[in-house]
Each structure stands twice: as structure tokens, then as C-alpha cells.
């Protein structure tokens, strides 16, 4: 088991108490900031600057397409862009670029999935909760960054829609949601799956 794998596992386990902290942190703005900061720090620690740069370019390109083309034309252009960049990411060594770190594959894939559907949702008032049409026409880069780099599922999945992210951020009574008991229940399976992983990793690596 490599040092990177140990770091990866530690981050996965650390995200459990972090989730509880996010839940009780208070305002939606604070939750959004914590989720974004945790995701960026997790990515930087796991894959470094070069590994996370690809996902950042994906997010930045999607944002520029959305704000430049607007709601009527941006969706499919952004869709083609993010999957085109994913193709480049997978083949960048053929163009003379350094091969991305192993764990950056998962981050890039999840960011790609989020960015390809985000333009379809960001202008929907039912999803954003914005009643001001001017606001819905100019989504902020921070909104793109916070959803794309939200630490929840960033390296393992599952993919979830922007609406799910907004619902989590704007949850009105988060303290009524149980987190400790479900976490303990799920942690009971860790030794079993951990043993299987180590066994398979030893014989089939």
C-alpha cells in the first residue's frame, strides 16, 4: 500500500467528521466555503498542482462558455468542451505533456460530469432559487468552483446534480438530520472491505 493510498484513505475517513462540521457550521455561505475549501485542499494534497490544474481548466473553460454564450447556446458547447478536454486529459502524454497523477483521473472524471450538466441547471430558477432574472443570467465563477470542487464525492463519487448541492447548502434544519449513527453503521463495513482491498492489491497489483 503506497503512501498516496494511505493519504487517500485518511482523507476519505476524515471527510466523515468534516461532514458533521459542515452540517452544524451555520449559514449557507459558510457551508459552501467549507465544502469548496475542503475539496480544493483534498485535491491539492492528493494530486498536487499539476494534477488539479486539468480540472481547474475544465471549470474555467465551462464558466467562460456559459457567461459568453448565455442560456440559449452554452449547454451543448460546454458539453462538447468538457468531454473534449477529458479526451485531451487522457491522451496528454501523446502531446508531450507529463502524465497526470493516478488519483487525478477520479477528480477529473467527477469534475467533468458536474461541469457538463451544470450549464443545463444554472439558469433554471427552480434549481437556483433565484427570482431575479439578472442574477440567473450571470452565474459567478465562485458558484462554478464551489459545486465542481465540493469535497463530497470528489474522488469517489457518486455524481450528484447542482440542485442536490444547493439543497444541501440551504438545508433549513440541518441539526435534525442524523449523521453520527449512519456514519458508525457504515464504518462497520470498513474492516471487511479494507481486508479485501489489501488482499487483492497484494496479489493483482
List key phrases describing it.
mainly alpha, 205 residues, single chain, 72% helix
Structure description:
The protein is mostly helical and 205 residues long. 72% of the residues lie in helices and 0% in strands. The termini are close together. Belongs to the membrane-bound acyltransferase family. Pathway: Lipid metabolism; phospholipid metabolism; Phospholipid metabolism. This is Lysophospholipid acyltransferase 7.
In short:
The chain has helices at 3-24, 28-69, 74-91, 104-121, 125-128, 133-137, 141-148, 162-169, 180-187, 190-204. It is mainly α.
Please give the share of residues in helix.
Answer: over 70%
Q: Which H/E pattern describes the elements?
A: HHHHHHHHHH
- Count of beta strands: 0
C-alpha-based Rg, rounded: 18 Å
Roughly what fraction of the amino acids lie in strands?
A: under 5%
Unreliable spans: none
Biggest sheet, in brief? none
Question: Which geometry do the CA atoms define?
Answer: flat
Mean pLDDT across all residues, rounded?
86
Distance linking N and C termini: 10 Å
Q: Treating each run of at least 4 consecutive H or I residues as one helix, how many helices?
A: 10
SSE class: mainly alpha
Q: In terms of topology, how is this protein built?
A:
Layout: H1 3-24, H2 28-69, H3 74-91, H4 104-121, H5 125-128, H6 133-137, H7 141-148, H8 162-169, H9 180-187, H10 190-204
Helix pairs in contact: 1-2, 2-3, 2-4, 2-7, 3-4
